[in-house]
Amino acid sequence: MAAALVRPTNNRMIAGVCAGLARRFGTSPATMRVIFLLSCLLPGPQFLVYLALWVLLPSEERTAGAAAW
Fold it and tell me: Using an 8 Å Cβ cutoff, are 62 and 20 in contact?
């Protein structure tokens, strides 16, 4: 079973979006950050998608608190 898509509390650099995506897809956070930086060289809304994921993805601490509730 794949890991849930959440922003982890560890391995964060800015918001934890790349760390969460790396955990979900089974890569290292550094690899996901390099992929994101390289994708920013291409035309498209990559930065806006990052901001949207920052807002929409739940933080791991809130998800754990909701599960305990």
Answer: no
Q: Do 47 and 37 meet the contact criterion of CB atoms below 8 Å apart?
A: no
pLDDT in tens, 23-33: 999 999 999 99
| C-alpha–C-alpha distance, residues 67 and 69, integer Å | 5
Return the structure tokens found at 46.
């990559």
Tokens of 44: 């498209």
Full-model pTM: 0.80
pLDDT band of 16, cuts 50, 70, 90: very high
Cα-trace Rg, the chain: 13
